[in-house]
Records
---
Amino acid sequence: ATAMTNYIQLFGNTQFAQGLDSLWDLVRALNKYVDSQAPWTLFKQGDTTRLGTVMYVLLSAMRKVALCLWAVMPDASRTLLEQLGQQPGEGPVTTSLEAEAGNFDGLQPGTEVAASSNLFPRIDVKALQQEAPAEKAPKAKKEKKQEAPKAASAAEGQSGEISFDQFKAVEMRAGTVVVAEKHPNADRILRLEIDFDEGQPRQILSGLADYYKPEELVGKQVIAVLNLAPRKIRGLMSNGMVLTAEKDGKLSVLTPAAPVPNGSQIA
């Protein structure tokens, strides 16, 4: 109930990454529940009464997860609900997530469910590596031939130069900070929500807490790199990097010389 309640509140505040992370607290708890209850052992022991309770708890909780995920993974949620004997049709089989969070009901005892499910199969890396061994051998030989000239070039320049194409691949845009607050689990990190004209603010975590009070950044235009891979920092996701400059041990955020429309590309 707590995980769902937090999910609903965070999504209502457009804090989508934090909301999903809160929902995953429920998923992690279900994993622990499976390990601790060991339904396979209950089956071998013939304890069908306890086994039925454990399976109902798991399947009912999975239904709650599917309902919450409908907003971001509708196809997977629909499939999971169908496997749980639900009939979602064009929408989730509930009228209120708030009501769902207040109880553990929703899955009718005796409902027939799918015999098996593999919505999110694990990737077998070893199997993928063995699929085309003949194709990989020539590539390895070519890379060895190129090692010597690459090393020589690096030793001569030591400049850390990048190509123009590499520079063009970096997406830098200007945006306005609409929310700034301390990271709940890291004293030196600020959690920023920045408007880049993407339809909703983007969450970026930045180590600026020693140099700015949160209220000093709200309303300020900053420049950030947007196409970095998302990174989880102390439980929160960061979707980009705010650019800064250092002088005398102090960091200052980079800003446009004059106000520009949010989302303007920096070239």
Note: Residues 134-138, 140-159 have pLDDT under 50 and may be disordered.
---
Amino acid sequence: MKLKKTLHILLLIAISCFQTACSDWTELENENIDKLLEHADAEMKAANEKYYENLRIYKKSEHSLTFGWFAAWAANGPGSTFLSQLPDSTDLVAIWGEKLWANPTKEMLADLKYAQEVKGLKVVTACLLFDIGKGLTPPVPADFAEKNPDIPKEKHWETWNKGFWGWKDGDEEAILKSVETYANALCDTIFKFGYDGFDLDAEPSYSQPFQTAKEMWRPPQRMYTFFETMAKRIGPKAETEEGRKKLLIVDGEPDWFPPKYGPYMNYFILQTYGASSNARLDSRLNSLISHFSSVHTPEEVANKLIVTEEFEKYSSTGGVNFSTPDGRTVPSYIGMAEWKPLGGQYRKGGIGSYHMQKDFAAQPTYKYLRKGIQIMNPANK
């Protein structure tokens, strides 16, 4: 944009020199230059507004999405902390870290609003959920130990957390009621701050680097209750029109849920980290198609499927080596962008990256995200 404005100025000077003696061009009155520049600025503004209007129209079209988990949101400091500095054609972002989405600053909310309203970016909250209250339980009161001397120090948080939500070990009716309360509180947070939905990081079968009893998943009815409560308020089957504008996404193990829950999910996101070939991606897709066959056609499953690479480890290389059908070796993120499900039978939902903000450090910035966008949705020439 700066280059275009500079060319406008040079052109105006050239015209002025032609219309007057060249030796006198420096005597042009400032107010005349200001008027000419004002006209040029108006043209630039109109062109800029048209560009973003077209961008928002593109975001609403059927195409393979560019997605990512964003873990550095602050909107204060380097460009990697801003949603608004992601590549313009980025479609969907999940805020990774409940400390970020649960307590956004005014700078973060301004960044969110600009990214949504001007660039058409969809921004959802994300949560790796094993225990109730994640992100929304207030701190343990300072006088908790004094008032509860019989509770061991290592049990303070668990006791306070469960008590806050009404969870009573051994009382399944009370537990399910507390799960409903928590799910509604998450939805309230989404509506309060204007987020576009929720991404449930479902990893009940995955080992974790921290201790957890995975109580939200055992027995399964607890998670069913959680999901059903959220699905009433957000997602494709929500009870209100406002709620149906929000997204309900499951990543990790969407096929942990019984098939009947498939239509309540906007997207299935798989952590296909380190995938090295189309065959691996097709295999993951086929597994989902089989699981949801009673409620979705293969095409519907493919259109919902987003495959992802891990940039926490591989941001500098764009992933691991990926063998393409034509014999090339490319970074796996690029291989995922090129991948056409089952030999090109269907359009994929898109591609994504964990810790997408780490690609900001590349030269040019967001190198791999931009390449992936162009591969899936080439710009008109």
Note: Residues 223 and 238 are 18 Å apart (CA to CA).
---
Amino acid sequence: MKVAIITLCVNNNYGNRLQNYALQKFLSIYVETVDTIWFEKNHYLPELPTWNWKLILKCILRWKNTYINFKYNYVKDCIREYNIKKFSNKYIKIKYDYKIRNNLNEEYDYFIVGSDQVWNPHYKQYYDEKFLKFADKKKRISYAASFGVTDIDNIKTKKIFKDNLTDMEYISVREVAGAKLIENLIGREVPVVVDPTILLPKEEWKKIKMAPEWYNGEKYILTYFLGNPSSIIENIAKKNNWKIYNLMDKNNFDLYTSRVEEFVYLIDHAQLVATDSFHACVFSILMNTPFLVVNRQQKGVADMTSRIDTLMELFGYQDRYIINGECKLSDEEILHMDFSNVKSIQEREIARSTAYIKKALNLK
């Protein structure tokens, strides 16, 4: 049997590459061939702004700022994405097909779209690809697909989603909010399954982790979000004489350009992780690393926390939030988490997800 995966085509996000790898590895247990179809032509270079005469004039008048931004920001982004791309090249079987061919449907028995936020209405459209319109209806499957939002406001977009979801044979989503959204759109109840990264045990992830060359064994708190850490994180670091490593700090070249394998290692060896990243939460749970979820609740910004909310409810960690700089837990409670139920919950969810995949792929 041959199966193709359709997911977000990006090399700028650790979680996206890790979920792609995990789904491929898990599916390979049951089918002979698993390919990822890379349909978006972006290579590893970050996107540059669309040039027009106003932007050109602005760059000329502020050429020093333009040069500094290019040298210290764009170049670092290129190196970061190149390092992430190396993970894809090494671990993921990718077929580059920038314009989905009409005969692609004939090459595979099934197509699986997911996981990650493949159905986020705020992302680039690519509706034909993300809803598998090029494939026979009976071949269309979603696994742990995510909307990233709780509602679709635009009437035109809502109709597109409604029409495309109706034509999909098997649908599963990653969040409870996504299941409710689909029920509201097409009146259909769909299962909520775990992200592919949870389908692999801790031991499998330890096989790919890699220690950064610059790391010398010191204790640290790892942060992975935009903005400054809260006073809670700073106070814990100060009390314990730990460093704070911020993966989004462009002033720290080594950290900002970390490889995917180093991302896993840094979470595994941290004393504490503070993040607003879904996959940083997942790997903290899998590696049994204490963590906190940073929720800024910004006004005017779409609420994209539903994916983390479902994860926290699944493992019973609803109290691990920093909301607007405040956390209800004491320092002792923050640093000493109970991970005793993680393995049993993970095994249960793997069984549920396996049953769904076997049914969708018509496997005995």
Note: The first helix runs from residue 14 to 27.
---
Amino acid sequence: MKVIKNYLYNAGYQILNMIIPLITVPYISRVLGAHDVGINEYTNSWVTFFFLMGQMGITLYGNREVAYHRDDLYKRSQTFWGVEALQLLTVSSAFVLYLVAVFLFSTTFKEFFLLQAIWIIATGVDISWYFMGLEEFRITVVRNTLVKIASLILIFTVVKTSNDLGKYILILGASQLVGNLTLWPYLRGNIVWVSIKKWHPFKHFYPSLLLFIPTITTQVYLVLNRLMLGRMSTQADLGNFGQADKIVKFVLAVVTATGTVMLPHVANKFAKGDIKGVRNSLYSSFNFVSAIAIPMMFGLMAIAKKFGPWFLGREFVLAGSVIFLEAPIILLIAWSNVTGTQYLMPVNRVKEYTTSVTIGALSNVIFNFVLIGKYGANGAAIATVGSEFLVTASQLWMIHSTISRRKLFRETWKYLFCGMVMFIVVNRICSVINMTVANLILEVVVGAIIYLLGLILTKASILDEAQKLLKKRTSK
């Protein structure tokens, strides 16, 4: 039950992180326009590389190490102080390098590059990994909700014209910084003071560095497309891709919330030698994410062409096709999130995980070079799907000796069949009616009913699991 509750908390947190920009997307798209939205995407892509260098895999490493020592207050506290000290050192170094790069090499958008630097500072004080390792997701969700709502209010009250791009960047960065700082008071009673001599921050450097490679290469899908679009195409193209990508990632956040929840859960089982429990958790999680990722993917594809320009504005007609083409990553990343983040990482098979995401990163560069020049934003979307497919395929191959792939995919055909039927019906409805709020709700409801009926007819096991969960809740 704790895993389910943590999933719901983390799903809520991930949705909150995505829903704030999702609410502001149509407003910002219309106020700033595709060109200025593209500038924000471009400058933020560069700062992302630097704060990832500073973070250096510490989020995943800290999460896992805290989970390993969860039941020992002193070792847990020693881990916290050591890992956080290392994080402050590496982030400070990244911050200095970023400022040097901005002043030496930036000829355009310097003001916006400097405002984006707040994200690096926010990374230095981010201790969410500690609470995730404890599987205490409620603290993170509740505390950050108020900060995110405050940022939403500020955006609507401060950003009024196309000249307010700097204010928009400042609000986003500052809200991230404040949100991270508000977690610190919750450490009281959770840790004890450990002598600085016993922190030993550099003993965490090498294992964190090992996790840095998969972390930075994974982010290639988020960053490289934008950088290459900014160089090889127009800022308007980049704006269309960036806003479409936000919509896809909003849907994806609901699915991948399981990864953050299951990593410490599986790591703790692995530390106790419960290998059978690790495998059972993997099978259940894979079935669960398949059941929810497939209808979300097909549902978004069904309405994408009309939804994009209706939601974002007339300058974003291209966004509809980008959403349609990129939507398959919802399923692909959902699967690789289970095989990679929920299995390979917590059982310390880091080299294999690193290999898989490196394959994806290298293929993403190649696909981008081939496709962006000819197809622009659509090419970047296709490149993303292609590289994510290779990541998922390679991870499935890597786990074949320890995990039964037949058992993983036993129920998948049912979800795919129900999802395809839902897509055909919803897409047909969308093609004959106008896109309005009421019609959008109608399409979502119809799609959900069709999918649920399909699961009942095919006797999908996810329904039995849901029924058992409900019985447990009602019996308490």
Note: Residues 1-212 form one domain.
